[in-house]
């Protein structure tokens, strides 16, 4: 399907004046594009064009049928998210509006609102305290909004490092306590009574900010699915803060997230203080396990990764101690 023609038909634009490649998708599965429109209701749109054929390479050498099947499923999950869930969010957990899609045998196109046309800008890789506070608020509001949602047509367990989908990386790990505890970690995270929808790839690169209002929006929902909110939290903090800062202030950011989550559950969804406290207590206990679960993935996928720092190791030790 020719991209410009499809977008013109979808938006009733007279023409596409300019198409800009914003970034290539991981492992060369396609690209993310901004299309400037003439004669349409919106000045521009974002289109994610996915090539569903197997790639020839992987940035870290993990190409193969297992990874390809996971990627194909992730793009279908993202389409399901935009079709069925994006419209259920609020301005407190802003996401792009879904505009339409094309599904072919070998390609998929998802067209969505261009958030930058409404004043949003990408976050800097290392967040200011104000931007981190606002992003934690987005996570808390998102998790409160979808608390107890079944996640129909999404991942049954969100996050791109979920154990069931990462058996190759598990096999590549050196044997040791963390590898031996991998199934128990996964069971504890999935067995929590309080499940919500998690973004699944909540790194700073997937958030935008509106400079005037400070509002946050999120993109890239390939790995959205059921889970405990601290999985998103651990991943966000690990992408936003260096090891020294995590060691100094990680627990403070955790408490801020939990306080914001509790307030959102009570004020917007009419939970009792006792029920909101129960969620926060369980998720606080699972916070080290969320870190350990991601450390398990990294040790198999990229053993020298910069995120394998002292804070992650400390949380992993706490998690393993909980399981014994």
UniProtKB/TrEMBL annotation:
Keyword tags: Transferase
Chain ranges of the CHK kinase-like domain: 110-267
Signal peptide (UniProt feature, chain positions): none
Example GO molecular function: transferase activity
Superkingdom field: Bacteria
SMART domains in alphabetical order: CHK (SM00587)
Pfam families cross-referenced by the UniProt entry: APH
InterPro entries in the record: Aminoglycoside_PTrfase, CHK_kinase-like, Kinase-like_dom_sf
Annotated protein name in UniProt: Phosphotransferase enzyme family protein
Organism: Ferrimonas sediminum
């Amino acid at each position: 399907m020719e991209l410009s023609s499809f977008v013109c038909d979808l938006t009733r634009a007279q023409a596409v004046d300019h198409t800009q490649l914003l970034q290539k998708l991981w492992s060369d599965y396609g690209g993310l594009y901004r299309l400037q429109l003439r004669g349409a209701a919106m000045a521009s749109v974002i289109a994610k064009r996915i090539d569903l054929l197997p790639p020839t390479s992987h940035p870290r050498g993990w190409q193969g049928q297992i990874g390809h099947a996971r990627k194909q499923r992730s793009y279908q999950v993202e389409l399901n998210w935009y079709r069925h869930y994006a419209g259920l969010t609020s301005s407190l957990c802003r996401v792009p509006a879904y505009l339409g899609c094309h599904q072919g045998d070998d390609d998929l196109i998802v067209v969505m609102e261009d958030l930058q046309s409404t004043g949003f800008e990408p976050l800097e890789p290392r967040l200011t305290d104000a931007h981190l506070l606002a992003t934690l608020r987005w996570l808390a509001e998102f998790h409160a909004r979808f608390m107890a949602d079944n996640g129909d047509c999404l991942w049954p367990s969100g996050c791109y490092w979920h154990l069931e989908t990462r058996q190759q990386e598990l096999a590549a790990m050196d044997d040791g306590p963390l590898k031996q505890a991998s199934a128990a970690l996964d069971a504890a995270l999935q067995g929590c009574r309080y499940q919500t929808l998690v973004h699944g790839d909540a790194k700073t690169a997937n958030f935008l900010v509106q400079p005037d209002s400070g509002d946050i929006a999120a993109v890239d929902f390939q790995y959205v699915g059921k889970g405990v909110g601290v999985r998103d939290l651990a991943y966000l903090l690990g992408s936003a803060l260096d090891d020294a800062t995590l060691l100094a202030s990680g627990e403070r950011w955790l408490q801020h997230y939990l306080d914001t989550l509790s307030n959102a559950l009570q004020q917007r969804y009419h939970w009792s203080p006792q029920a909101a406290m129960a969620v926060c207590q369980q998720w606080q206990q699972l916070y080290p396990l969320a870190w350990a679960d991601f450390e398990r993935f990294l040790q198999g996928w990229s053993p020298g990764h910069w995120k394998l720092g002292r804070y992650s190791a400390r949380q992993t030790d706490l998690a393993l101690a909980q399981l014994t």
